[in-house]
Amino acid sequence: MLKAGIVGLPNVGKSTLFNALTRSRKAEAANYPFCTIDPNVGVVEVPDQRLKPLQGIAKTKVVIPAAIEMLDIAGLVAGASKGEGLGNKFLSNIREVDSIVHVVRCFEDDDVIHNMGSVDPLRDIETITTELILADMQSVDTQIDRNKKRARGNDKEAAANIALLEKLIVHLNEGKPANTFEVSDDERPRLKSFFLLSEKPVLYACNVAESNLADAENNPYVQKVREYVKEHHDAGACIISAKLEYELSELELEEAKDYLLELGVSDSGVSALIRATYKLLGLASYFTAGEKEVRAWTFPLGFKAPECAGVIHTDFERGFIKAEVVSYDDLVAAGSVAAAREAGKYRLEGKDYVFADGDVVLFRFNV
What is the value of pTM for the model shown? Predict the structure, then answer.
């Protein structure tokens, strides 16, 4: 299962958000720096409005959504790349994740300590980005030295690594993260092999006050973050109120909906955040739907039919014959499996078929 790490400065709402996402109290949330030391880990269900219509068509009581793993990582401070605060632990933890949810404080509250003395989300973003870049520069220097030793023996792979690493160090020296470094399709796997922290994709979560949620798009901090991360990090941002989300997670579903409506919003920011994180990880869902259950299966975009079959079980991939496929939209428009078949919307796909998000599938295999 792919992992997303929740990061940010101390006291920006990371642990509160984690508890809301996982509907738990795993993470200690306190008004002082470094109340999180070891990362908290939780599995988060991915909200998907397509499951309920499929449940009606399949006439089943069992629905199993897709899921991703979230890590609540210790707060980082300036100097982390040199071991300040819990820097070494932070950098070690972040190497374990596949993408980053960077929580940024976008609210004023004198009762909540800010470890840098004031609220300035752009400064906060660059504090963490700089530490990741500095750690990557150390890593790149080490890798250049290592590859130069190999290149003396006419190692062509080492020579290719050096050529890319030397271009990359110039980019990092300009204060730019590795995820904005332009590479060709051929170079991309090589860049991945360097395991750089700033190469991981990032989603910025603007944490606003509960009272500001309905009008959060006009929050000047949120507006600055959206513009800044798009221009400088080629990244997106979403809006959450971590404290509110945690309160909602303790309510029954209908109570939570009513409370949101009272605040003038129709949907939970957490739902949007989870879906955006799922997309950030390069993931999509296909479905199986029968009397036993309706289930969303997670696959990386670009997977072909046998690989997607292997998500269910390795025997499905090993013995793959065909995939019987109908798109979610076509199935729901038809209203039933029988009607979709009569309309010619089902098709048989072979080993070269690249799965699409929303495919509803029945695998044929023989082991």
Answer: 0.85
